[in-house]
Inverse folding.
C-alpha cells in the first residue's frame, strides 16, 4: 500500500509530522514551546534561499518562453487564458469563503500582536523598491518577481548573448533545485516543531476550522470541475466540445489523482487531446506550457488560505486585501507553480507579501498538503479546457486545408 501511495509519500510524511506537532502542542505545551528554535532554524534556511530561488527560477522560465515568440498569437493566447483561468476560481472561492467563514469566530492566539494589515496597502512599495538592494529582501518578493519577469523577457530577446545567460540560469536553477531538495528532507522536523510551538497556546477548536476549510475547498472544487469545466468546454467547442471533453477527461483526472503531478500526467493529457480531436499542432504547443502556467487549483487554494488566515487572525479583509489576494493567487498559479519548491514558496510569498506572522506558515502548509490532490486534478483537467479555448482562438491558423470548413 505504501508503494501505491508513493506519489503522496512526502505529503503524507509532512502531514503526519504536523499532526504529531499539533498533538504535542495541545498535550505537552511546555515541551512544544521548547521546540520552536528547531522550526525557526528551518524557516530561516528557507528564507535564506528564497531570493535566489525566485530570481533564478522565474528569469529562467520566462527566458525560455520568450524563445517561442515566433509563435506569436498562440503564445499570447496561452498566457491570457492561463491568467483568466486563475482569476476566475480565485475570485469565486474568495467570495465563497467570505460568505461561509470556515474559521467561524475561532481566533488564532499568537504571542505577538498582529497589526491589521488590511488597514491600508501601499501598492507602490509592494510592486517596486527604490533601489536594487531592496530586491534582495524576502519582504519584497512581489517586486522581485516583477523584475525577474522583465529580466527574463530581456534575456529571451537578446539573441546569442541572451542564450548564453539563459544556459547559465538553467545551470544555476539545477543547483537551486538540489538545495531545495536537501532542505525539504528536514521539512517534517522543522515544520512539525514549529507547528507544535504554535499550537501550544491554542484552543482545540482550531482543529475543527481546518476541517471546515478543507470541506469548503472540496465542495468548491467539485462545483468548479463540473460547472466550470462544462462552460469552458462550451466556449472552446460548443456542445460538441462539451461532449468530447466529458468523454475523455476521466483518464487524465484519475492519473493526476494517482501521481499528484501535472507533469507526470502530461503524456495522458496529450493522448486525451487527440481523442477529443483537438488540433495536434496546437495541443503539442499548448499543453507542455499549460502544465506550468495553467494552475487554477493552485490559485483556488492560495485564495482560500489568505481568507482563512485573515479570519483566524481577526484581520479586516477589505477591498485592497481582496485585490491583493487575487494578485497573489494568480502569481502563485502562473509563476510560482512552476518554480522548484513552489509549494513552500507559496506559503512564504503569502506571509511576506501580506506582512503576516511566521507562526501561520505551518497552518498554510497543512491546508496545502491536504488539498494537493484535488488541486492537481483541477490543474490537469483544465489544461484540456484551456487547449479547447486556445484552439477556438487560433484554430483557423493551424487547421489542415481539408478541415478548414469544419472550424
Amino acid at each position: 500500500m505504501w508503494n501505491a501511495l508513493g506519489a503522496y509519500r512526502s505529503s503524507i510524511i509532512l502531514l503526519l509530522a504536523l499532526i504529531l506537532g499539533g498533538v504535542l502542542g495541545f498535550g505537552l505545551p511546555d515541551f512544544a514551546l521548547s521546540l520552536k528554535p528547531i522550526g525557526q532554524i528551518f524557516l530561516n534556511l528557507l528564507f535564506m534561499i528564497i531570493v535566489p530561488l525566485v530570481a533564478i527560477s522565474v528569469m529562467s522560465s520566462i527566458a525560455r518562453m520568450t524563445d517561442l515568440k515566433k509563435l506569436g498569437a498562440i503564445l499570447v493566447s496561452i498566457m491570457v487564458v492561463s491568467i483568466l483561468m486563475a482569476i476566475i476560481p480565485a475570485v469565486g472561492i474568495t467570495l465563497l469563503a467570505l460568505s461561509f467563514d470556515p474559521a467561524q469566530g475561532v481566533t488564532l492566539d499568537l504571542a505577538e500582536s498582529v497589526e491589521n494589515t488590511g488597514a491600508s496597502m501601499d501598492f507602490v512599495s509592494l510592486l517596486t523598491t527604490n533601489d536594487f538592494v531592496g530586491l534582495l529582501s524576502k519582504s519584497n518578493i512581489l517586486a522581485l518577481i516583477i523584475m525577474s519577469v522583465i529580466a527574463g523577457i530581456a534575456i529571451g530577446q537578446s539573441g546569442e548573448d541572451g542564450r548564453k545567460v539563459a544556459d547559465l540560469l538553467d545551470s544555476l536553477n539545477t543547483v537551486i533545485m538540489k538545495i531545495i531538495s536537501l532542505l525539504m528532507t528536514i521539512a517534517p522536523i522543522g515544520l512539525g516543531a514549529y507547528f507544535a510551538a504554535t499550537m501550544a497556546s491554542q484552543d482545540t477548536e482550531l482543529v475543527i476550522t481546518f476541517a471546515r476549510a478543507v470541506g469548503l475547498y472540496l465542495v468548491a472544487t467539485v462545483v468548479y470541475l463540473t460547472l466550470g469545466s462544462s462552460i469552458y468546454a462550451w466556449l472552446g467547442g460548443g456542445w460538441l466540445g462539451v461532449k468530447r471533453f466529458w468523454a475523455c477527461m476521466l483518464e487524465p483526472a484519475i492519473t493526476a489523482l494517482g501521481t499528484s503531478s501535472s507533469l507526470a500526467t502530461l503524456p495522458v493529457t496529450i493522448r486525451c487531446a487527440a481523442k477529443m480531436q483537438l488540433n495536434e499542432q496546437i495541443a503539442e504547443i499548448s499543453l507542455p506550457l499549460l502544465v506550468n502556467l495553467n494552475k487554477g487549483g493552485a490559485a483556488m487554494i492560495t485564495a482560500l488560505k489568505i481568507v482563512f488566515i485573515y479570519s483566524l487572525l481577526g484581520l479586516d479583509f477589505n477591498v485592497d486585501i481582496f485585490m491583493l489576494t487575487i494578485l497573489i493567487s494568480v502569481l502563485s498559479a502562473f509563476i510560482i507553480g512552476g518554480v522548484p519548491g513552489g509549494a513552500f514558496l507559496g506559503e512564504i510569498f503569502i506571509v511576506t507579501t501580506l506582512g503576516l506572522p511566521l507562526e501561520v506558515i505551518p497552518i498554510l502548509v497543512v491546508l496545502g498538503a491536504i488539498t494537493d490532490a484535488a488541486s492537481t486534478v483541477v490543474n490537469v483537467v483544465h489544461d484540456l479546457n484551456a487547449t479547447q479555448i486556445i484552439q477556438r482562438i487560433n484554430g483557423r491558423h493551424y487547421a489542415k486545408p481539408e478541415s478548414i470548413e469544419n472550424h
